[in-house]
Amino acid sequence: MVMIGPPPVQLAASNPKKWDADWQDLLRRAHTDPDIGPGKQLRTRLGRRSVLHPDGGLKDTVLYTIRVLREGLCALQAELTREALLYFVRARFEQKWIAAAPEERGKPVLAALCDVCTSAMNLHQAREFFAVELNVAAHQKDGRLLVGYIKEIMVVENPAANPEDPIFISHPVWDVLEHGASVHEKIALKSILVLRNKLIAHVLFFVLRSFLGLDVPRIRVNKHATNKKSTLCAEQPTKLTEFLIEGFGRAGAERHVKLEREAMKELYSEPKQHCFNCQKPNNTKMRYARCKRCWDSMKRETLYCSPACQKVDWKNGHKRRPALVGFKCSIPLMYLVGRINQSPDYDYFVWTAQYPIYLLFTYKPVQAAVLGARTKALASGDRPSVAKLAHMLIFTSQHDPRARSLGVTKELIVKQLKDEYEFEEIALALDEMRARMAWDPLHRPPLLIDAGFSAGAWEEYQDTWSMVGMAEIGVVPDHPRLVEDANRGQ
C-alpha cells in the first residue's frame, strides 16, 4: 500500500522508527515524482492553509503570522548560537559527535524529530520540506552534517542579541521554485522557508543538549492572534474590482487595498535601524549616524540615535569593545568575542577546565599594546598579531604566580589561540617571538618592542609588576546553569 500523505503525528510517539520510515518513503517519492514534489507541495500549502480570499488576495493575518514566526526563529537561532558556542568550546561537542558511533548519533536525531514534530502540528507538516537535512540515516553515516548545519545558522555578528533577520539553510529545489512564482506563491514560500528553518533549529537544539546528557529544551507553542487591530493583509495590492466593491462596499474595498499596501511596504522594507546604546528604533526617514572608528577599522555598522547616546556608550566601554570580527572566524573565536563583548573591561580570557580566567593589564602602555594586537587579530586574523599576543599572554602567565595558581599554563594558551585563530603554525611563530626577545638587549616581549617601548618604560613596567603583578588576573564565573551544563557535558 502506497502512502499518499504524511504519516499521522501520533505514530511518532507510538512507533518512532515506523513513523520515520514512512516519512522517508514519502520524501523519496516526492523527490522523483513531479505530481508529489515541491510544486505540488506549494499548491497544497496554499490550499491547506486557506490563505486566499475568493478574489485571489491573501486572507487577513497571513503576513502577520509570518512576521511572528520570523521573530521567533530569530530568537531561537540566537539562543542556539549562545549554547552551541559554550558546548563546542567547553564540552567539545563537535569532536565527541563526530567520533561517536553511528547508532549514538542516530538515536538523538530521531528522538529530536519525534519530540519537535509532536509539539506543534505546523512543525510536523513542515517535515515534508526536508528531503535531506533531517534524514536520520545520513546523520548516522556522517557526523559532519549536523555540525555543519549548526555552524551555518549561527548568529556570527553578535550572539548576545537576537538578529533582525533569520539565517536560512537553503535548498536548491526550493530556491528554484521562487523564480517564476506568483506574488501569493512567494508568500507561501516565505512561510515554508520560516517553518523549514524553525524545525531544523529546534532539532539541532534538542540534539546538542540531549547528546551531552543535558535537559532538552521545551518548545513554546505560540497562539497567533487574529485581532483585526493586528491584521496585515497582502503582499501585493489587489485592484478595486467589482467583486471587492460588492463584497466590502467602496469604503471597505479601499481600506482593504490600503492595508495590503502597508503590509507589502513593511515586508519589503529594509530592517529597521536601532540605536546601539538605547535600542530606540529609527522611525524617521533619516539614517542614524554610525561610529566612524568601527566602520573604518572593521566595516562594522554601529548606529546611534544621537551624539549623546554615542558619548554614553563610549564611556561605558565602546571605545575598547571589539564588537565584531571582520573575517570568517572559528567557533572558539566567536565564543571569545561574545565573552569580550559581555565583559569589555577585561583584555583577554583563558579557558581552564573549571572556569574562565580574565586578564586585565593595569599598566596603561602595556594595555594599549595588548588591545592593539587583539583588535588586529580579531579584525583580520593577522598572524603576527596573534603570535605577539600569544607570546605576551604566555610571558605574563610564567611571571605571575596568580596565573599559575589558577591553572593558566603555556600549553593551555597555545592550544586555545591555535583553535581560536586556526593557526596551525603557532608553535613556530612563538619560537620566533622567543628568539626576538632573546636577541633584544632589554629582553622585552616583541609585542612591546613593536609598540615602541623605551628602556625607561620597560624599567618602569618591571618595577610596577614587582609590586602589583603584571596584570590583574581572576576568575569570571559563567552563568550558573551554563557552567553546570558544560561541566556535565564534559
TrEMBL record:
Cited Gene3D superfamilies: 6.10.140.2220
Signal peptide annotation: none
Flavoprotein listed as a keyword: no
Q: Which domain of life is it from?
A: Eukaryota
UniProt GO MF annotations? zinc ion binding
- Keywords per UniProt: Metal-binding, Zinc, Zinc-finger
Where is each MYND-type domain found? 275-320
Specify the protein name.
MYND-type domain-containing protein
Instruction: Name the species this protein comes from.
Output: Roridomyces roridus
